[in-house]
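The material for today's practical consists of a large collection of protein records. An example says more than a description, so a record of this kind follows:
***
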Amino acid sequence: MSVAGQSLRVALLNPCFWPEVRRGSERFARELADGLIGRGHRPTLITSHPGRFAITEEDRLNVIRLPRPPDGRLLRRGYEDHMTHAPLSYLLLRLMRFDIAHALFSSDAVAAARWAKATGRPAVYSNMGVPERPELVRRRRRLELLE
């Protein structure tokens, strides 16, 4: 059942998705989307991939795949994975009308937080793992990104 009879437009953000990657956050995104769909909401997954811009519907889930700019230079300098798609994710959040944004990766969380600040709508971040200090300082500015 939807909240107060209202169907929410939910943006789910994750840097990768099926079939490119099948790990924890990708499965979590799919299962969360299925639960939302089952309750009458309208989730859209915003993700990236090495190809061109694409919009598909996969088992009643709208999936928007943004082009993923190369990130080799950032990775060589020790920065977090999956940073290059975040500006496009933020732009898409601003262009479309969502009621809430739910990020599943730290770079997406930054895009969702900025969107929330600009729009006054809520954003949620689900950290897929246990944030332990050795991991948080392994990559350049990872701790600040998470904060």
Summary: Helices lie at 24-38, 72-76, 86-95, 106-119, 133-136, 142-146.
